[in-house]
């Protein structure tokens, strides 16, 4: 079976969730996030794009409601024993099937937590869910219940994160090797992704972001693929991925030569990243990390070029993106703790001069400081 954690670890995670269920005076939790299902049971699929729910009762019962294509997927990748199938047909309503199962396991007239904040629970399906369970159970939004538990990584999870970081380093080596004038973005992208796959890695939860010329100022993937000019710039954000655990990096590479404006932007990014490193320690809040990022870049004249967030947690995530809860933004009160993993990115987009500069690394918070998981240099490399 394709299961990546021990039964004991899954049981420990289950016990933690049940403790939170009872603490919140709930009788059960309706799980819709794919990463929650994977973390709790090992269930590995992209079938969450259709209606799919994992029920966990306060007594520890687990029941999965899914479609026929995911029956064997769940059997082969998870510890779930009770798997129910809703049938595809015109006017089918799987929420009604879910109601029947909830009644069967004794959850009528109960208090149920729901992962509403989920890519797997579309607005239409949420309406179906609410309508089906109206007057049957009282529903409470508990979208962060499992996400909060996933924040602190176990020793086995940290092994996977560090392996992902090794793969990210391999991808960076490929970027440095091929990011030169006359080379296409497609070639660079293929070599970077190939480095991850050849190292035993997985597809990431979202596309690598790559753009050159004016597209170097974009923070999202888009489909244009340029050939690099003699004097150019290319921005690349990527992640090594292993067993669905991510370790991300971000770089802008000047092509041909680097001008004074780019040098100054790079030094600002480096100074901000180093300051954030010092703040990213157990006991500080996530918002405090953002504050030092903003102060340094603002004081250096880049307020209009920086972003309103400078990173986010990383862990096991599924499409459409690898960004995990929480994000590093102003006043975020979440307190940092040992075992958390964060990707910090210093992003500068100078629209007036059509220049970009990005520097991003992934960190593991340790007992008294943090560890940068990428082992490559932070120097400004010219292609």
Q: Can you give a write-up of this model?
A:
α3 (71-77) links the parallel β3 (62-66) and β4. By secondary structure, this protein is of the alpha+beta class. The protein has 2 domains: 7-150, Creatinase/prolidase N-terminal domain (Creatine Amidinohydrolase, Chain A, domain 1); 155-372, Creatine Amidinohydrolase (Alpha-Beta Complex). It starts with 6 loop residues before the first helix and ends in an 11-residue tail after the last strand. Helix content is 34%, strand content 23%. α4 (94-104) crosses α5 (123-133). It has helices spanning 7-23, 34-41, 71-77, 94-104, 123-133, 145-150, 155-178, 185-198, 260-279, 286-299, and strands at residues 28-31, 53-57, 62-66, 82-85, 111-114, 138-141, 209-212, 232-242, 245-255, 309-313, 324-329, 341-350, 355-365, 370-372. Strands 7, 8, 9, 10, 11, 12, 13 and 14 form an 8-stranded antiparallel β-sheet that branches. A 6-stranded mixed β-sheet has the order 4-3-2-1-5-6, with helices on both faces.
Radius of gyration, in angstroms, nearest whole number: 22 Å
Shape: elongated
Domain count: the total is 2
- For this structure, the CATH topology of the largest domain is Creatine Amidinohydrolase
Average pLDDT taken over every residue: 97
CATH architecture assignment name of the largest domain = Alpha-Beta Complex
Question: What separation lies between the terminal Cα atoms?
Answer: 44 Å
CATH class of the largest domain: Alpha Beta
Strand content: 15-25%
| SS content category | alpha+beta
Kindly report the name of the CATH homologous superfamily of the largest domain. Creatinase/methionine aminopeptidase superfamily
């Amino acid at each position: 079976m394709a299961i990546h954690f021990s039964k004991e670890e899954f049981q420990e995670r289950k016990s933690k969730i049940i403790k939170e269920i009872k603490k919140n005076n709930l009788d059960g939790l309706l799980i819709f996030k794919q990463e929650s299902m994977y973390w709790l049971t090992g269930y590995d699929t992209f079938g969450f794009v259709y209606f799919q729910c994992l029920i966990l009762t306060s007594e520890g019962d687990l029941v999965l409601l899914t479609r026929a294509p995911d029956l064997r997927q769940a059997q082969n990748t998870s510890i779930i024993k009770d798997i129910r199938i809703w049938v595809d047909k015109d006017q089918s309503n799987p929420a009604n099937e879910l109601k029947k199962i909830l009644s069967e396991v004794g959850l009528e007239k109960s208090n149920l937590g729901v992962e509403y904040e989920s890519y797997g629970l579309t607005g239409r399906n949420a309406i179906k869910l609410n309508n089906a369970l109206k007057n049957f159970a009282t529903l409470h939004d508990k979208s962060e219940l499992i996400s909060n538990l996933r924040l602190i990584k176990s020793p086995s999870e940290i092994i996977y994160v560090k392996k992902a970081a090794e793969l990210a380093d391999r991808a960076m080596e490929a970027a440095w090797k091929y990011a030169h004038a006359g080379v296409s973005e497609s070639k660079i992208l293929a070599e970077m992704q190939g480095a991850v796959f050849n190292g035993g890695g997985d597809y990431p939860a979202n596309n690598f972001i790559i753009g050159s010329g004016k597209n170097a100022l974009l923070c999202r993937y888009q489909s244009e693929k340029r050939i690099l000019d003699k004097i150019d710039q290319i921005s690349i954000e990527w992640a090594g991925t292993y067993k669905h655990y991510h370790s991300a990096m971000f770089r802008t590479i000047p092509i041909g030569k680097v001008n004074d404006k780019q040098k100054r932007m790079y030094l600002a990014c480096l100074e901000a990243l180093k300051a954030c490193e010092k703040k990213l320690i157990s006991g500080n809040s996530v918002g405090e990390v953002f504050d030092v990022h903003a102060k340094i870049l603002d004081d250096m004249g880049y307020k209009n070029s920086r972003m309103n967030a400078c990173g986010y947690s990383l862990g096991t995530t599924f499409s459409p993106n690898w960004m995990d809860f929480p994000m590093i933004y102003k006043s975020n009160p979440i307190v940092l703790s040992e075992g958390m993993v964060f990707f910090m990115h210093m992003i500068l987009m100078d629209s007036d001069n059509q220049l970009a500069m990005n520097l991003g690394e992934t960190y593991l918070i340790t007992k008294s400081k943090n560890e940068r998981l990428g082992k490559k240099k932070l120097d400004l490399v010219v292609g």
